[in-house]
What does this fold into?
Amino acid sequence: MIPLPGLGDLREAITLLSKPWRAFRGYRLLVFGTKGAGKTTLWRHLETGTDVSASISSTLAPEAISKFKLRDIKVAGLIRVRILGVDVPGDPNLRSTWEDTLYNLSAPPHGIIFMLDNVEDTDNSVPSVGYDQQRLKEHRKAFEHLSNLIFNNSEIMDALQALLILVNKNDSWGSLGLQHGDIIKAAGLDSLLPRFEELQLCRRRAQPCSALYGSNIQGSMAWMAKNFK
It folds into this structure.
């Protein structure tokens, strides 16, 4: 059953409807993160607007991760926005594609989402007791790499309007009494983010979420859409 939009969704929808529809056309959105952080699941939820836990597959067609494609995504559970988006590979062996994706586009992205989690990347993932230190180190290394790519390109810095950090799988780590800020700090991202503020780059927001079940996804995307000029 598709859930009915709540009051918060309606407020977001009214706000977004006040903006001209042409403002959404051609937005370019990139989703980065380590392997298994939930990037593909996020796209599937955005495109369907529903819980996708019953339809997740471990395979993804190569063309889906190598090119931009037009995607109709749902914002605030009510409004469909057509954007140009790509699910960037998270495998460390494919990390070179991050630079290729950022630097070889016809135009730089308007928005970037970085996803992290606190669950081991196995077929039968279970929440670790406290923090998965190795996983957190992977997240820091990935975010530091992404940040440097952004800082080293003036076109990207000028074009980027919104950076959204999603701490995914809160349906798992939330039961441990952890907060998303705890995980961001434990991963060391909090020491990397001030550089964005120093350079006065884009609006920034961090949110917990479950891409699998849709928790906090719509509100986060509505925030991002409102910050696109």
User: Anything to note?
Assistant: The chain has one domain: 25-226. The first helix runs from residue 7 to 17.
